[in-house]
Amino acid sequence: MTGWPAFLRLFLRRDRWMVLWWGLGTMLLYVSQAVSVDGLYATQEEFDRAAASMASNAAFIAMAGPARALNTTGGQVFWQASAFGAVVAGLMSMFLVGRHTRAEEETGRDELLRATAVGRLAPSAAALLNAFVANVVLGVLVAGSLVLYGLAAADSVATGVGLTSAGWFFSATALVAAQLVTSTRAMYGVAGIVIAVSYVLRAVGDVGNGLASWLSPIGWYQAMHPFSGLRWWPALLLLGGTAVAATLAWRLFDRRGYGSGVFAARPGPARAPAYLSGGYGLAWRLQRAPILSWAAGMLALGLVYGSMGNDVEDLIGDSETSQQVFLQGSTDLVQAFYATSMVMLALIVGGFAISSTLRPRGEEDGGHLEVVLATALPRSRWLLAHVVMTVAGTALALLASGVGLAVGYSLVTGSSDELWHLSLPPLQYAPAVLVLSGVARLLYGVSPRLMVLAWLPLVLAAVVMLFGDLLKIPQWAQDLSPFEHLALVPAQDVDWAAVAGVAAIAVALSVAGQLAFRRRDIH
Amino acid sequence: MTDEHVIDIRGLVKRFGSFRALDGLDLAVGPGEVHGFLGPNGAGKSTTIRVLLGLLRKDGGEARLFGGDPWREAAALHRRLAYVPGDVNLWPNLTGGEVIDLLGRLRGGIDEARRAELIEAFELDPTKKGRAYSKGNRQKVALVAALASDVELLVLDEPTSGLDPLMESVFQRYVDAFRDRGHAVLLSSHILAEVEELADRVSIIRAGKVVESGSLADLRHLTRTSVSAELERPAAGLAAVPGVHDLVVEGERVRFQVDTAQLDAALSTLLSAGVRTLASQPPTLEELFLRHYGDPVEATE
After folding, report:
1. Which of A371, A379, A519, A520 has the highest number of chain B CBs within 10 A, making it the mutation to test binding with B?
2. Do A294 and A249 fall into the same domain?
3. Number of domains in chain B
4. What is the pLDDT, as a whole number, of residue B230?
5. Nearest-by-CA chain A residue for B16
6. B83/A374 touch (CB, cutoff 8 Å), yes or no
């Protein structure tokens, strides 16, 4: 273990900004629930009614956790945020541990450091401690913000402590995953499955007899019952689990050689499949994993939103502000809810479209592009193939979210009337999403260095959509968001002229990016 | 104008900002020729290749590839060549075999028999994923893909930097065979010995310009060999042999440098004094530059 403090200092230094952003994001996740709950209900009566409705909705319980004290602000905060908070802490821990252990080992970058006078265990120990520190930052920010907001101090602190402990548990399991497989990607897969299984187990338990929740670290966190009869001992389960997983990681580390895993990397095919023979085949191979996972994710998200729709009237309460927020000028509350859901889902798909547009730059930075362009593949067709993947992936993700909404709604209501009414309308947002990626495409065409600005249009569109009226952003600035020009389906009818106009802008941006790309140097 | 030339570059200029990476470069490579493209790191070798491949746009001068414009007709011209970069980066999730097939198909076809033969000769495991290969093995994947393609020109940028000596000789054998079929090779390197093994003609590039060009025999005047010997008696008149420099005599031991063109005269003098031991060393590129172009070469990159 000799030399671990030096590694820890190095890791903390490399991660400080990243950890701060994760921490602030998690803090917002918790404290924003408090703000929104307090703003939504005018009277306690109204609040009680909404709480009772939420507590009787199995979909909500499966999504968030056991319904306890939902008619209090603290109870709502913990219920709405704790499961997702634990998942966020788990993901952060997974990335932090992976980046300093398996990723370094896979690239051989840390051989340089390992060759100095340090113990064999030092880098792994420091990586684990580094993730521990990051989770403490998360816990402190969450607990501190809730106390400052004015919630009960002991319960707020328990919320933070439980979050930190859950993060520690996932850090240790991520370290185990790093010993098992040889590639960073596979390690994230294994660690991600641990988090996903934890989430699903507690959902099964919370909806059923509660037993399965006791198999899940997220379930242990929620078993602390902050704001509804706080008890501390479940945190010991998390700490004990952390110790067991860390010990297991240690043992495994001792038994394997540097660069290898407990499971050896599987060999792949010696010959390329027939489709892998041109620009389109290559682009599909490089983008299919994100395209398919985004479609699956959007389908799941659509299901969640879809299953909520019927309860909307109970949930929103009668206060004028909350009505205003959800009605969006429509008269039917359920339709308005779906209109809001669809535009939110479309905005999330914007994340796919932009990351898909970033892929060509990854190819150029990674040194793959020069080899590919030294073949008979014209550069315009190479880029066009990636554009096609972005467009097709965007359409697929939007369609998946619509199908999710429709199926979720049908499952809850038992009626299939809305299937068509809900599954296709999200597709009208495809042009708006593609305007966002079109801006990124143009930036890439001009110079890959400009790609740091690629996410800006999405951020702008999100700010306009969520806070446009709240912040009193001037209309001309709101009009910059392509989403502002489209009809709020299904509450309103599709405005085909607007769809065509936004689509024309998307095409123009993409074509301009292509033309610029054809003229520039490849780096 | 240049049908007999596979590569014909005249007065090529490429600027990056205010920095002139290529400053009036000339280069000609004909069919059936392995052309060594020799220069220190950062001299402009890779920039020249990237202009030839249509990846960079030239700022001045002429560059012709198979008589065509490498920028405008890039894709069509690329059917006739294969390129191996100095630092081969493979996609982490594609196997070596998949990359070989993909690159071969993108070039317009692959010779199946030669593909199998090359994989065998280079002792390459084509089922490994890109992330699992060492630097030398990544290089082999690109070399197999290039050598198995039916092309008329190989553009190789420091192709043996990760190969062990055994694989290097396999590589040399295949490059020789390729040349013997009447095809051309542009072989960029900063290692003189690598180029000497293979090249018929050599161009030496420095600071974006070709400073010497010709057959290896033409360039003999550039090279000096270091000789050290132990003799039976003092060698009279060694200092008077033309082309002998930096002579150090310590009793029966002598050390000196001699222009390669004058090697014969110097050795005759040694022989007449009776040679007990003899060691000679070819000059390194760095020495060559130091001697002929005045200032030391900075090892960058």
Report:
1. A371
2. no
3. 2
4. 92
5. A521
6. yes
